[in-house]
Design a protein that fits this description.
alpha/beta, 7-stranded mixed beta sheet, 6 helices, 9 strands, about 30% helix
Length: about 240
């Protein structure tokens, strides 16, 4: 009887979903909240749309997935003159330096600093990208074989379920005006009956599929914005 109880307890534990969340590595802020003044707020209210098409774009990734590289095809759009990728090392320093630790909290990114580097790249529009990936893993019916010594390694006992939320922001480099912000959660990507030895590989494949779908969505949104010449109402949702 005790063996049966242990058996079903173990299986219930194994079949419960495991969650992994890969959030943006950086956050951004206008500047240190302790230094924001009424004058800064007034300037934000006074900022007006001043974008002229075609434009020069500057990209920056708040995530570590190099998502902006998937946006480079926008340089072929007639409303885009050129694209400048702001290097992470200029903003956040060298990740492997002794001053950085894997357990430290993300350092807030100063949007004014990003605008400055975008200006140095002769850009008119600064676009920030951020992705958050949620990975769910559970054992399927093959998971019963995990009770054996080698069974779990010889059968496809895992089911994978990935969900990606993509967010991006369009700022005027000259005055910081927010033209557009958009956040969207894509339909989930699934893979059933995955071998333990292929787990990480399958996660990367599904992640890449989601990133490609997200990139297409974001490119379409940016092209639509540039084509419409929209200069007001920054919030889409």
């Amino acid at each position: 009887m005790k063996i049966a109880i242990l058996f079903f307890s173990f299986y219930a534990l194994c079949c419960s979903a495991a969650h992994y969340s890969y959030a943006p590595s950086s956050v951004y802020s206008e500047n240190d909240p302790r230094q924001i003044t009424d004058e800064d707020i007034l300037k934000a209210f006074k900022a007006k749309p001043q974008l002229f098409i075609p434009v020069r774009l500057a990209f920056y990734d708040l995530s570590t997935d190099k998502f902006s590289e998937k946006m480079l095809t926008l340089k072929n759009d007639k409303n885009v003159i050129n694209i400048y990728l702001i290097p992470r090392t200029l903003i956040e320093g060298i990740p492997n330096s002794r001053a950085h630790y894997s357990y430290s909290a993300p350092h807030p990114i100063d949007i004014k600093n990003l605008r400055l580097f975008a200006a140095r790249g002769q850009a008119d529009l600064l676009i920030l990208f951020a992705n958050q990936l949620k990975v769910e893993s559970s054992l399927n019916s093959w998971g019963l074989l995990y009770l054996t010594l080698l069974g779990g390694l010889l059968v496809p006992a895992h089911d994978l379920n990935l969900e990606l939320t993509t967010e991006f922001f369009l700022f005027d480099v000259r005055n910081g005006y927010l033209y557009l912000q958009h956040s969207e959660t894509l339909p989930k990507a699934e893979k059933k009956y995955v071998f333990a030895s292929q787990f990480e590989k399958e996660v990367e494949l599904l992640k890449e599929q989601l990133l490609e779908r997200a990139a297409e969505m974001v490119r379409n949104k940016i092209v639509e914005f540039l084509k419409s010449g929209k200069k007001a109402n920054p919030s889409e949702n």
